[in-house]
Amino acid sequence: MKKGYFITFEGAEGSGKSTQIRKAVAFLKKKGRSVVMLREPGGTRISEAIRAILLNKDLKEMDPVTELLLYLAARAQIVHEKIIPALRKGKVVICDRFEDSTRAYQGFGRGLSLAAIEEASRLVRGTLKPDLTFVLDIDIAKGLARGGRHDRIERETLSFHRRVRRGFLALAKKEPRRMVVLDTSKPVAWVSGIVRERLERVFGQ
Question: Which stretch of DSSP H or E encloses residue 150?
Fold first, then answer.
């Protein structure tokens, strides 16, 4: 099977993922690559409907297990409807969040079993895993101030978001070859330069 390349961007709220994703997409398109840009949860009609439930600020009573299963359901749809077909065509898929967010938010943040999350995730994505992941690290207070606290997840406690941040860093420490941590306290141009450098290693200058 002809395979494309799967890149994900991860990080806490307000870390600047959207800016870096746009720059990465522009760089790859200049190199003549066919790029598919997606977001999680979302990216398909069904997944976007699930996203609306997950982020609804009025649904404060949502149980962590319900939350986990909804995220996995949204991912199952985007994996089979969008990501796998694009990779089979040899395209570069760039996704704003993927399974590492589930580990960080529902595992480290909510305290659900990482082993259980891993087992359920295999049912959702099979053997699919990102080839390269950028983790944008930011001080939690700064990130929330930058992005605002509009949806249900953003409105969680500071302690929750700090656990999520520690989760991302712990995951990156375990998989340093795949996950690149970017210090967003540095200038945007510096962060973009590191992303571009890593992309050049894969796709050439």
Answer: none
CB-CB contact of 195 with 182 (8 Å): yes
- pLDDT for 77-118, tens place per residue? 999 999 999 999 999 999 999 999 999 999 999 999 999 999
SS3 133: strand
> 61 exposed, middle or buried (CB, 10 Å; 0-12, 13-18, 19+)?
exposed
Look at phi and psi of residue 103 and say left if phi exceeds 0, alpha if psi is from -120 to 50, else beta.
Answer: alpha
Residue 5 β-bridge partners: 92
Question: What's this model's pTM, rounded to 2 decimal places?
Answer: 0.95
Phi, psi angle pair for 59, to nearest 5°: -90, 60
Contact status, residue 82 vs residue 36, Cβ threshold 8 Å:
yes
Residues 31/62, Cβ–Cβ less than 8 Å: no
Q: If phi over 0 gives left and psi between -120 and 50 gives alpha, with beta otherwise, what is residue 131?
A: alpha
- Name the domain count of the chain: 1
Kindly report the CATH number assigned to the domain that includes residue 136: 3.40.50.300
Peptide bond into 176 cis (omega under 30): no
pLDDT of 1 strictly over 70: no
| pLDDT at residue 177, rounded to an integer | 96
pLDDT at site 178: 98
Domain that holds residue 193: 5-203
The letter for the amino acid at 118 is E
